[in-house]
Amino acid sequence: MRKYLYLAVFFLGLPLLCRAQSLEEVIRLAQDSTITAFQSQYEYQASLERNAYFEALRKPQLTLQLKPNYYRMITETSRDYVYIRNFDRFSTSAQLLLTQKVLPWGGDAYVGSQALWSEYFVRDNQDHPRDFVAMPLVAGYQQSLLGYNPYRWEKAAEDQRLEAARKQYNTQLHRIAEEATTRFFRLVCAQGMLDMCERNKQTADTLYAIAKEKAAIAMITLAELRSLELQRLNAANALFNARNEEKLARESLLAYLRVDEESFPLGKRLPVPTLTKGIPMTDEDALEMALSSSPAVSEGKVALTEARGLQEKARREAGVKVGVDLNVGMQQISNRFFGAYQNPQLYVLGAVSLSVPLMDHGAAKRSRAAAQAWKDREEQALREAERSLAEDVRTTLENLRSHQQLLVHTEEAVAMADEVFELTAENYANGLCDINTYSLAQSRRDNAYNQHLTALAAYWTTYYHLLTLTQHE
User: Is the N or C terminus of the chain more exposed, i.e. has fewer CB atoms within 10 Å?
Assistant: First the structure.
């Protein structure tokens, strides 16, 4: 019966003979080919493009605007007086404008040139001259609400939004690694159970053949023979189920990696990564890394920044609202096009708008209260996200240490179960124990091996979940 011990030792030592990077290779394939990886890449690329669009709008903008306009005045014929006439008016304006957001103040500066042509068609058989209005140069600055800088809040929120998108992309890659690890170990465990069932089936066939020979010379009882026959049948059923589970686990992994059986680089049999890794960080470092790399926390910061910006705006709008529009330029009017550009006159225009809420039925107060409540809500949501993340990190670290200790115990249990099974098999062959004792030793060996594979899968999935939380490479 020593050959079964050799088989067990060979199977447990198989990872040392196979490529040690098999799990990492599966993860790499998943991150390169899964649908989730493509979607995450496209989402991150879209975030980069949105950020580039946002930054482009903060640079100087040169715009050409053409506005044709047609206006018709219809009154009664009897009321065709000097100031009330029936006429048609056609006008066209052209504007070339260079604008720039003044980021430190929150307003817009502009410089450009404008021209306006107006043509009147009055139904009184009189000649009415056309008008050309030219403004060769216009420069100015306008801001709708003094004291409030929307660009500062937009910039802070956009930078945080891009950072959150980057963290979300990295988190998705780590989650792909988690899913790939789960499917990988499902197949590893299924293959391990299949090997164990094949050994049990071979052992049951061998014992049943020997028992039939002994029964022919009345060396064993009929009940013992029937027990071996039942054990042989149970081993065959277990082997059938193990093959089905191995097939399903393999198809699940291949479908996730989007590869077929022939192109799968690891072959038919996956090696078992028995060598574990230590925790690459302390508890404090893990919590700090998780808080700094969590997309949920980053998105909460974005929402809080936007809420604070709305609160600031509501506070500024609650009292007297002051706006300003200052511009300086040159202008001339003529009935000829080129005449409008001769001898332009300098002008300076300064407009200050004041809005005083005399009676708003508490609208401003309620607006401030709503903005304050929303800011408080986002602060509470951010604290809850940080608390939930900290709890997840602590639980993951505890589970990882627990699984690591359990692996040591299950390895000892596998070695002891193999030794007990070998001794029991020899005793049964020499007639020193009955079939029940042998079956119990075999069941204990199978249970120990199954627990070891389960603990190994739990350790590696927990390990990669910790890497997802901390985004540790």
Answer: C
- Reading phi first (left if > 0) and then psi (alpha if -120 to 50, else beta), residue 471 is in left
Domain spanning 2-53+153-305+378-470, CATH class: mainly alpha
Q: For residue 433, what are the contacts with CB-CB under 8 A and spacing of at least 6?
A: 424, 427
Q: Which residues contact 256 (CB under 8 A, 6 or more apart)?
A: 30, 34, 179, 180, 183
pLDDT band at 11 (very low <50, low <70, confident <90, very high): very low
**In the structure, what pLDDT confidence band is assigned to residue 67 with cuts at 50, 70 and 90?**
confident
Is 332 in a helix, a strand, or coil?
A: strand
Least confident residue range of 112-126, 227-241, 449-463: 112-126
What digits encode the pLDDT tens for the residues 391-421?
Answer: 999 999 999 999 999 999 999 999 999 999 8
Q: Which amino acid is at 236?
A: A
The sheet with strand 321-334 has its strands ordered as: 61-73, 87-102, 107-122, 131-143, 321-334, 345-355
**Which of the four pLDDT bands, split at 50, 70 and 90, describes residue 8?**
very low
Q: How confident is the model at residue 88 (pLDDT cuts 50, 70, 90)?
A: low
- Cα dihedral angle (150, 153, 159, 164), rounded to 10 degrees? -120
Count CB neighbours of 440 within 10 A: 14
Q: Give tens-digit pLDDT for 336-363.
A: 888 888 888 888 888 888 888 888 888 8
Q: Where in the chain is the domain with CATH 2.20.200.10?
A: 82-102+107-143+320-356
Number of H helices and number of E strands within the chain?
10, 6
Helices (H), 294-434: 295-318, 363-429
Half-sphere exposure of 473 (CA within 13 A, CB side): 1
The answer to whether the beta carbons of residues 321 and 355 sit under 8 Å apart is yes
Residue 136 has φ and ψ, to the nearest 5°, of -60, -35
Question: Looking up tokens 């064993």, which residue turns up?
Answer: 220
Pairing verdict, β 87-102 and 61-73: antiparallel
